[in-house]
Amino acid sequence: MEALLQQIEQYKQEIHNTPVNGTESLEVYRIRFLGTKGIVKNLFTEMRNVPADRKKEFGQILNEFKQLAETKYEEWKTQVEVQPDVIDTGFDLSLPGTEFPVGSRHPISLMRNRMIEIFQRLGFSVAEGPEIEDDWHNFTALNLPEHHPARDMQDTFYIQQQPDWLLRTHTSNIQIREMEKGKLPLRIVCPGRVYRNETISARSHCFFHQIEGLYIDEHVSFADLKQTLYYFVQEMYGKDIKVRFRPSYFPFTEPSAEMDISCLLCNGKGCSVCKKTGWLEILGCGMIHPKVLENCGIDSNKYSGFAFGMGIERPALLKYDIKDIRLFSENDARFLKQFTAAT
Ligand code: DAH
């Protein structure tokens, strides 16, 4: 009898110490303790060896033990049913995961992508070029030879040991690089970062972004240029937008123009943003100068083309109502995270 009681104590310990695992170990447990040849059954058959005066006491202990074995089984079974993942893997897979911050698109990227998308619908593809450029691609090939006064408007950063290298002042260098490849017709938009030696303020910076457009084929005319840009601004700002072209000068285009759109804030009535003119200047454009085509080995008698270039910062400032251009490059998370859901 004493040996039996000791044995029961051991089994109790074993039950307490058995970890609650998956379905398979539950079945092993069931067979061991509660099966037809299991421990509980066996202990009951021991009853006949117990002296008559202690049968009642032993019966009680046995019943409690049986209860313990069964309760453990029931609890275990419910857990397996309710949270099988926790039991099988040891992890509660329904707990929230470790949070890590998801970035948001930069407002300049948002604006650039919008612009690209519109031109892609017209069949333009995207081309890129180097930010560290040589004099030929940034200036000379674009009909801006050394000592040309127009170079003064685009002062930039030079490298002392390599006087021929500079940080590109505009994305027009990509025009040249693409034309030099010699594959025509050419219909591309070229986004990128550009640099100028300018004092940093709320309105200007020593680097900013542009997107350049270029279309070269036989019989491309100024009418194509106007219609392309008109389509662009209508898609960008809505059908009611008005445009005007003002004659201008760029060494790489002839004729050249600047395009204005009716002010987005006052609809052309005149406000502080458009300086009471009702118009906002958004880009420079023109028919590619024959000399530029020839510089790149293109027959200017056979081919003609148009080009345009515009800044990305200004439209982004307007769209998102940002007052200071420096915010774009300060990497302040409080500023950037505001664009999480922006398009
Ligand atoms: N590169 C000019 C600038 O940065 C912008 C520009 C004007 C680009 C006319 C062009 C163009 O392609 O045709 O000010």
Comma- or semicolon-separated keywords:
3-stranded antiparallel β-sheet, 7-stranded mixed β-sheet, 10 strands, 12 helices, 343 residues, binds 3,4-dihydroxyphenylalanine, rod-shaped, single chain, alpha+beta
What does this structure look like?
The chain has 343 residues and is of the alpha+beta class. The protein is 38% helix and 20% strand. The chain has helices spanning 2-17, 23-34, 39-45, 55-82, 84-89, 107-121, 135-138, 172-180, 222-237, 290-295, 313-320, 333-336; strands spanning 125-126, 132-134, 158-159, 162-167, 186-195, 207-217, 243-250, 253-262, 279-288, 304-311. The strands form two sheets. Strands 1-5-6-10-9-8-7 form a seven-stranded mixed β-sheet, sandwiched between helices. Strands 2-4-3 form a three-stranded antiparallel β-sheet. Strand 3 (158-159) and strand 4 form a beta hairpin. Helix 1 (2-17) packs parallel to helix 4 and helix 2 (23-34) packs antiparallel against helix 4. The longest helix is centred in the N-terminal third of the chain and has 28 residues, at 55-82. The model has no long low-confidence stretch (mean pLDDT 93). Residues 170, 172, 212, 250, 253, 284-286, 307-309 line the site of 3,4-dihydroxyphenylalanine.
